[in-house]
Design goal:
The complex is a heterodimer of chains A (about 180) and B (about 170). By secondary structure, chain A is α+β, with helices and mostly antiparallel strands. Chain A has one domain. Chain A has helices at about 20-35, 125-135, 140-165, and strands at about 5-20, 40-50, 55-65, 70-90, 95-115. The model of chain A has no long low-confidence stretch (mean pLDDT about 90). Chain B has helices at about 20-35, 120-135, 135-160, and strands spanning about 5-20, 40-50, 50-60, 60-65, 70-90, 90-110. With about 170 residues, chain B is an alpha+beta fold. In chain B, a hairpin with a 2-residue loop joins strand 5 and strand 6. Chain B has one domain (about 5-160). The model of chain B has no long low-confidence stretch (mean pLDDT about 90). Chain B is elongated. Classes of the chains: A alpha+beta (about 180), B alpha+beta (about 170). The interface of A and B includes residues 19, 151 and 169 of A.
Chain lengths: ~180, ~170
């Protein structure tokens, strides 16, 4: 069996129901991706005709980063919001428009190996790549590049929870990557 | 296919009263970090309701103990009617939570997680034979590791919540 060239990170689900600043959350994710050097794309923006209970939106963000010439990190953030209504609240004397909704955020990602398809030319090179990935750089792929992406996603996961001021927030693995970003 | 054996099935922990929710969450997270588990927080749901917050969390961390065995723990937590309360302890004001906690713990032992013995039917047959009769002792040992880990985190949570507890050994 050939070694896969795309290693998928499991899906992480966050659901929140209540009042929150959706514009702020949107900007937080965009800024986070840009600050981490990801190429940001909004691949889906779907706004459905509002019902009396509120509007429904589906948004997908994708961030990709070429970490080396051989590895590429991809992060996908899917938003799905139901019963969206805008509420005006007064915070410390300042009027602010917040969103009241049910929201689901799905975080996932993948490590794309040989994304430039340099070893896809013919079967010989594909076998060379497979041998290399199976027996020589396996540890490197799984412990360095795949793990880095996993824990990078956890940083975003925690940033979202902090922003929404959820009770179960915090990340004891924050120092795992050895950076403070 | 890698084999996943359910070693501990639905061990429960219930609590009602005052607790530090974020502290509890971080204690569990810190325990996984200390023990070398890879983190996997599958679900984190929070609803703000008039009766308080309802929170549901599912953690599925794993640890590769050898190149053949993998421990998987599953902790499902449900917090109901969580309200913020402020209490004073030795002159210091603390912001804690009040509500109900329900926790369910499961432990799994996954063997041949790298699928090395799945490629051919003959390999699969050999693996089953070896697992059942020759490496039975290793299997039992690996089961003990995962059970011990589960009892350890269970005990840590009991200590955190200041519950009555007893030392659990396998």
């Amino acid at each position: 069996m050939a070694y896969p060239t795309k290693l998928v990170i499991e899906k992480h689900f966050i659901r929140y129901k209540g009042l929150f600043d959706f514009d702020g959350l949107y900007n937080l994710i965009v800024q986070w991706m840009k600050a981490q050097g990801y190429y940001f794309e909004e691949t889906k923006y779907k706004h459905k005709v509002p019902l009396p209970t509120g509007a429904e939106q589906e948004i997908t963000f994708k961030g990709s980063k070429d970490v080396t010439e051989f590895y590429q990190h991809n992060i996908v953030v899917d938003f799905h919001l139901w019963d969206m209504t805008e509420v005006e609240v007064e915070l410390a004397g300042v009027k602010k428009t917040l969103t009241s909704a049910r929201m689901e955020i799905v975080l996932s990602g993948n490590l794309n190996i040989d994304y430039e398809k340099r070893f896809e030319k013919n079967v010989f090179w594909q076998n060379i790549r497979d041998f290399f990935m199976k027996y020589i750089i396996k540890e490197d792929i799984e412990s360095t590049w795949y793990d880095e992406l996993r824990y990078r996603i956890y940083k975003l996961h925690d940033a979202i929870k902090q922003y929404l001021d959820m009770q179960a927030k915090g990340n004891e693995y924050a120092g795992y990557l050895g950076d403070n970003e | 296919m890698a084999e996943k054996k359910l070693v501990v099935d639905q061990m429960k922990l219930n609590y009602e009263g005052i607790f530090d929710l974020n502290g509890l969450y971080r204690t569990i997270d810190a325990w996984f970090y200390e023990k070398g588990y890879d983190r996997y927080e599958q679900k984190n749901y929070e609803q703000v309701l008039p009766t308080g917050k309802d929170i549901e969390i599912e953690l599925l961390p794993w640890k590769k103990t050898t190149d053949y065995f993998k421990n998987i723990l599953r902790i499902r937590m449900k917090f109901v009617n969580v309200k913020d309360v402020e209490i004073e302890k030795q002159g210091v004001k603390l912001k804690l939570q009040q509500g109900r906690i329900m926790m369910i713990f499961d432990a799994y032992l996954e063997s041949d997680y790298e699928h090395k013995w799945d490629e051919k039917p003959m390999f699969f047959f050999i693996r089953t034979l070896f697992d059942k009769y020759i490496f039975k002792g290793y299997f039992a040992k690996a089961e003990k590791w995962v059970i011990n880990d589960l009892f350890d985190i269970h005990g840590r949570i009991q200590r955190f919540l200041n519950l009555y507890r007893y030392e659990k050994h396998v």
